[in-house]
Automatic annotation (TrEMBL):
Source organism of the structure: Kribbella jejuensis
Pfam families: Glycolipid_bind (PF06475)
Name of protein: Glycolipid-binding protein
InterPro entries: Glycolipid-bd_prot_put (IPR009467)
Taxonomic lineage: Bacteria, Bacillati, Actinomycetota, Actinomycetes, Propionibacteriales
């Protein structure tokens, strides 16, 4: 599967579970984004700054959020010794090379860029999962299987045993989500 360069900016409209909007600004080795949404009675804003190495493995994450209860901040770092969250070692995240934000369609691009997918191949891709409401970090078990690919689109079967969820994710030529059923649709 061959990917083109990421655009400098992109945006998504949240659909289904929440109402909201996400924007991304991308540069070499860095993804900066903002999401604001309403999910049920909860209103929140999450801003993230993700640094990846040349192989698209997450190195560091800085996130802030705001809710009616106030503001939160979290810093994640991944080194050869493992993950830390706000400076505290997190061995439960061993084996995770990616971060995944509950509030974001963007973070689903990380394993797509990092792994050598071919049609029919599956990869277990656990991630450090950051919740939107309070930025708590847990382990997310997930699997991606490339089901079809051409120059314009790549379709993956996505499964998360953590949430007992599966769907078909459609990506553009640059490896950004176009359609995440029930979550978000790319609008730019």
């Amino acid at each position: 599967m061959k990917l083109t360069a990421l655009p400098v900016a992109a945006s998504w409209t949240h659909t289904g579970v929440r109402t909201g909007f996400e924007v991304l600004f991308a540069s070499a080795g860095r993804l900066r984004g903002r999401t604001s949404a309403r999910e049920g009675d909860l209103l929140w804003y999450v801003g993230y700054d993700i640094t990846v190495d040349a192989d698209w493995t997450t190195e560091s994450v800085h996130a802030v959020n705001s809710t009616a209860d106030g503001d939160h901040e979290v810093v994640l770092r991944r080194t050869p010794d493992g993950w830390t969250v706000d400076g505290t070692a997190r061995p439960d995240l061993d084996g995770c090379l990616d971060v995944d934000f509950e509030s974001s369609a963007v973070t689903n691009t990380l394993p797509i860029h990092r792994l050598p997918f071919e049609v029919g191949t599956s990869y277990e891709v656990p991630a450090a999962f950051v919740r939107a409401e309070d930025l708590t970090v847990t382990r997310l078990e997930q699997r991606y299987t490339l089901t079809s690919s051409d120059e314009q689109r790549h379709v993956f079967h996505y499964e998360s045993s953590t949430f007992d969820f599966e769907c078909e994710l459609t990506y553009d030529a640059a490896g950004l989500v176009l359609d995440y059923p029930g979550i978000a649709v790319r609008d730019r």
